[in-house]
Automatic annotation (TrEMBL):
<dbReference type="Pfam" id="PF25137">
    <property type="entry name" value="ADH_Fe_C"/>
</dbReference>
<dbReference type="GO" id="GO:0008106">
    <property type="term" value="F:alcohol dehydrogenase (NADP+) activity"/>
</dbReference>
<dbReference type="Pfam" id="PF00465">
    <property type="entry name" value="Fe-ADH"/>
</dbReference>
<dbReference type="InterPro" id="IPR001670">
    <property type="entry name" value="ADH_Fe/GldA"/>
</dbReference>
<keyword id="KW-0560">Oxidoreductase</keyword>
<feature type="domain" description="Fe-containing alcohol dehydrogenase-like C-terminal">
    <location>
        <begin position="190"/>
        <end position="383"/>
    </location>
</feature>
<comment type="similarity">
    <text>Belongs to the iron-containing alcohol dehydrogenase family.</text>
</comment>
<dbReference type="InterPro" id="IPR056798">
    <property type="entry name" value="ADH_Fe_C"/>
</dbReference>
<dbReference type="InterPro" id="IPR044731">
    <property type="entry name" value="BDH-like"/>
</dbReference>
<dbReference type="GO" id="GO:1990362">
    <property type="term" value="F:butanol dehydrogenase (NAD+) activity"/>
</dbReference>
<dbReference type="GO" id="GO:0005829">
    <property type="term" value="C:cytosol"/>
</dbReference>
<dbReference type="GO" id="GO:0046872">
    <property type="term" value="F:metal ion binding"/>
</dbReference>
<protein>
    <submittedName>
        <fullName>NADP-dependent alcohol dehydrogenase</fullName>
    </submittedName>
</protein>
<feature type="domain" description="Alcohol dehydrogenase iron-type/glycerol dehydrogenase GldA">
    <location>
        <begin position="10"/>
        <end position="176"/>
    </location>
</feature>
<dbReference type="GO" id="GO:1990002">
    <property type="term" value="F:methylglyoxal reductase (NADPH) (acetol producing) activity"/>
</dbReference>
């Protein structure tokens, strides 16, 4: 298979401790800034003070309270504030959820009339987004340097991804020291989310992409080594390696010109919308069972993954693939993330309701071959322990 692609990665990355102090050099002095954040951890860890010092010469309006799964109605309240304050620049400070919200907000704020959700789904006649930037405090999604935002709309029972290249952040500041105050659960989620991002772009078809495949394998090796270490050691090296790997996992590079899957993510989004499950934990619950269900199509890359990343020695592809899935499942367990419905106390999953979510979102069929329909989704969830 011949690769044909256009790669756009215009986000400027400022990586390293102390880079928040460079913020003023990235935002023009004439910009009116809306500072968007989540639950308030930036107030406790000193990040907020550093930002306000760096932007002392700017007009800054603040909006907090962005949820871990950013809610459309919350972002729309921020859009009203942005219009009232004549904001010209959106600065998202936090993890992927806040940065997703910032990108969506940058598109929604200039939309004067109609429903911004429906307008953006339609993708036509949209005004130019406001420019945005990101300060990352929780590595996981790569949202700080890609054009996708994932937004929940509880009133409609949906959680959907929105992609708009013009919404990609102008810059992203990645200061690994901001991770020091994060609770263990957020670190676990961040590593697992990054791992699944790589696997969704890598475990597809064995195409002619040695650079992308090799880079994916390197990223996985880093995450599998340093992810568990991040949980137990207070080291700059662990924070730096995980933060950088998570960024590279979803900035467009490893997916350029190769088939991509994303079925685990779409099913996971449905589980989060229906049950409030942490995003990363919805992914770990689905992915091993999806791999086994899709074994005939994925066996070649699963075997390669097992040999090159996990070092399995089996010559038979199916045996190597089975071991690769088992090792992945074990890694998720080591990161304290579920691999079956029974691992989440009180969780009862209805495959029919998940399928309904996917149908209402217009996402079926799923997969790199568009061959995962309603029946396959039900089978994957039943293998994970969902009720019949």
């Amino acid at each position: 298979m011949t690769m044909t692609f256009t790669l756009e990665t215009p986000t400027r990355i400022l990586f390293g401790e102390g880079m928040i102090d460079e913020l003023a050099s990235q935002i023009g002095p004439e910009e009116r800034v809306l500072l968007l954040y989540g639950g308030g951890s930036i107030m406790r860890n000193g990040v907020h003070d550093r930002i306000r010092q760096a932007l002392a010469g700017h007009v800054v309006t603040e909006f907090g309270g962005i949820e871990p799964n950013p809610e459309y109605e919350t972002v729309m309240r921020a859009a009203v504030l942005a219009r009232e304050e004549k904001v010209t620049f959106i600065l998202g400070v936090g993890g992927g959820s806040v940065i997703d919200a910032a990108k969506f907000l940058s598109c929604a704020a200039p939309i004067g009339g109609g429903d911004a959700w429906d307008r953006m789904l339609g993708g036509r006649d949209l005004p130019e987004p406001l420019p945005s930037g990101a300060i990352l405090t929780l590595p996981a999604t790569g949202s700080e340097s890609n054009p996708v935002s994932v937004i929940s709309r509880t009133a409609r029972g949906l959680k959907l991804p929105f992609k708009r290249e013009a919404a990609r952040p102008r810059f992203a500041i990645l200061d690994p020291s901001t991770m020091k105050s994060l609770p263990r659960r957020q670190l676990e989620n961040g590593v697992v989310d990054a791992v699944t991002h790589v696997l969704e772009q890598y475990l597809t078809l064995p195409v002619n992409a040695p650079v992308q495949h090799g880079y994916s394998e390197a990223l996985l090796a880093v995450l599998f080594e340093w992810g568990p270490r991040l949980l137990v050691e207070d080291s700059d090296e662990a924070r730096e390696n995980v933060m950088w790997a998570a960024n590279q996992a979803l900035n467009g590079l490893i997916g350029a010109g190769v088939p991509q899957d994303w079925s685990t993510h779409m099913i996971g989004h449905a589980l989060t919308a229906l049950h409030g499950l942490d995003h990363a934990r919805s992914l770990s619950l689905v992915m091993p069972h999806l791999m086994r269900n899709r074994m005939p199509n994925k066996v070649a890359m699963l075997a390669r993954y097992g040999r090159r990343v996990w070092g399995v020695a089996e010559a038979d592809d199916r045996a190597a693939a089975d071991l690769a899935i088992a090792r992945t499942e074990d890694f998720f367990r080591r990161m304290n993330c579920p691999v079956a419905v029974r691992d989440v106390p009180g969780l009862a999953v209805s495959p029919d309701k998940v399928v309904q979510h996917l149908e209402e979102a217009g996402q079926l069929p799923l997969g790199e071959n568009a061959d995962i329909g309603a029946a396959e989704v039900r089978a994957i969830l039943k293998a994970a322990g969902a009720a019949a």
